[in-house]
Amino acid sequence: MSGMKNIDIINQRLSRGPLDKTGKAELARELGISSAGLESILTFYTPDRGEDLLCTGLPCRMKWQGRAIEMSVGAREESCLGYCDHAPVMRVEGKFVTVTGSGIAEIEESNHDFVKRNIEHISEYTLKGGYSYLEGEGGKIDGDGMLQRVEKSGLRGMGGAGFPVHLKWKSFRQFSNEDSYLLVNAHEGEPGTFKDRKILELAPHSVLDGAIIAAVSNGIRRIVVGIKKEYALGYASLTMAREELTERVRNSGHSIPEIEIIRAGGSYVTGEETALMEALEGRRSEPRLRPPFPTEIGLYSRPTLVHNAETLSAIASLASSGKELLKSYCLSGDVKHPGTYRVKIGTALGKLMESSGNGPMTGVKAVMPGGLSGGILPGSNEELKLDFDSVRKAGAGLGTGSVIVLSSRRCMVETAENVASFFMKESCGKCMPCRHGTKELKEILSGARQGRGSEIDLENGGEIARMMIDGSICALGQVAGRMYMDAVAHFRDEFLDHLKGVCRSESCFSGGMER
Ligand SMILES: Cc1cc2nc3c(=O)[nH]c(=O)nc-3n(C[C@H](O)[C@H](O)[C@H](O)COP(=O)(O)O)c2cc1C
Ligand code: SF4
């Protein structure tokens, strides 16, 4: 790995504006790929030209109601802008705004000055016990001790899959060599999920500290942070934190792994770890076939340990305090106080709602405990413990811990259609079950919403969903199928009513957003 990487070359060229035929031919030559290869990359990444954007993610869509048409003239629709707790959200003239009854208001936390005022600097971070291995002459990271600590804590990955961290470390150690990488996944993009953005912006040292601990514990000398291009504030915070850290390391006489921070374009699927590697290597951001797993062949074909930004932050806090695990849960949808709430992992849903000022859970029709990819549970389910095993037992997934609450006035057919639209739009198209399946499920659900179609269509949708669950390359196709099956199973009567042209919910939000 030397000189400028493909991703840097592409980013640099695109930042100068659209490429003409000659420009494309030159770029393809420079990258050493065919014109068709270049075209396949350029058509994957939507260039951001600073245009106005309108968020269509479920938490925003729930709040748009009839306001969208008027507001959205000329704006490009985006699947998620990452400010779900301020729904409904737009980007207008470069500023992130929430749309209120009387107009628009800038979201304070999206402002660079807000982040600058509230970011945790290294002096505050070390006071809490962070980077303790940089203290004194004997300071070092005990890799095996750390592995035991992680195992004892039961820490699971917080990027969505919930894989036990200690098992990943053990598997990685079988393949690790001196060229291995630690990849920090900072490419958050699912509607309802905004925890990583807040951690990256305001607590970047916790991510870098956790990355160093995980890297050194596993013999890794190079860390790459793959951050979503749209997270400009997170990128600025991480870069500032790395500068502070470099200064501190210089004065300490210790050494740490090399840390590179790369901004990667892409879409929701780019958050899938192998798709992120493809993006960072300057290719179309599509998930790779497995095996081999990234622990064996990952970034730049080297053994790679991948962790979500919040997982690393949790590893840092485990190393410094060793206390019980806390998790940032995102709350959005029909709640009074949406936001992120950092509480003990496994806190009951009702308790989370009450402690965040949102409870008690009355008038709740359904809850998505793990964002759009975690499935849907009917009722308020106050006793539900928000940990991976309990949520799985209840029939859903904890995912990233992004709880979307749907009140009794919500139409579940429209909700299911919105979710299906998201997966259809975000499918990368690499495998057939997902490429076709997401489109067909969206069609069936649109038909049901409009009172077209029949029970047979719903059953056919079930068959398609099963094929997606069994045959998709990555979890996107699988969770899209699972979501359809859950929604139809739990709210069958509502679906059957809709097929007859009847909706008993207070508002179908179809009217407001149809364009
Ligand atoms: C479609 C899709 C999107 C994903 N998006 C993210 C993401 O934005 N951030 C993330 O850390 N993991 C994401 N993941 C999970 C990663 O593939 C991977 O499991 C995770 O980064 C591993 O880190 P962890 O073990 O610390 O959770 C996504 C997975 C899929 C299938
Ligand atoms: S499941 Fe969907 S997103 Fe994943 S590789 Fe297949 S087409 Fe792409």
Task: Explain what you see.
The chain has helices spanning 6-15, 21-31, 35-42, 58-64, 68-71, 112-118, 122-127, 143-153, 165-175, 195-202, 204-217, 232-252, 273-280, 309-320, 349-355, 388-394, 412-426, 432-449, 455-471, 475-490, 492-499, 510-513, and strands at residues 53-55, 76-78, 89-92, 95-100, 103-106, 181-186, 222-228, 258-264, 304-308, 326-333, 339-344, 364-372, 377-378, 402-407. It starts with 5 loop residues before the first helix and ends with a helix. By secondary structure, the chain is of the alpha/beta class. The chain is 45% helix and 15% strand. Residues 510-515 have low confidence and may be disordered. Helix 17 runs antiparallel to helix 18. It has a five-stranded mixed β-sheet with strand order 2-1-3-4-5. A five-stranded mixed β-sheet has the order 11-10-14-12-13. The chain has five domains: 6-42; 53-110, no CATH class; 113-320, NADH-ubiquinone oxidoreductase 51kDa subunit (Rossmann fold, 3-Layer(aba) Sandwich); 327-407, Ubiquitin-like (UB roll), CATH 3.10.20.600; 412-513, NADH-ubiquinone oxidoreductase 51kDa subunit, iron-sulphur binding domain (de novo design (two linked rop proteins), Up-down Bundle), CATH 1.20.1440.230. Residues 269, 286-287, 427-431, 434-435, 472-474, 476-477 line the site of iron/sulfur cluster.
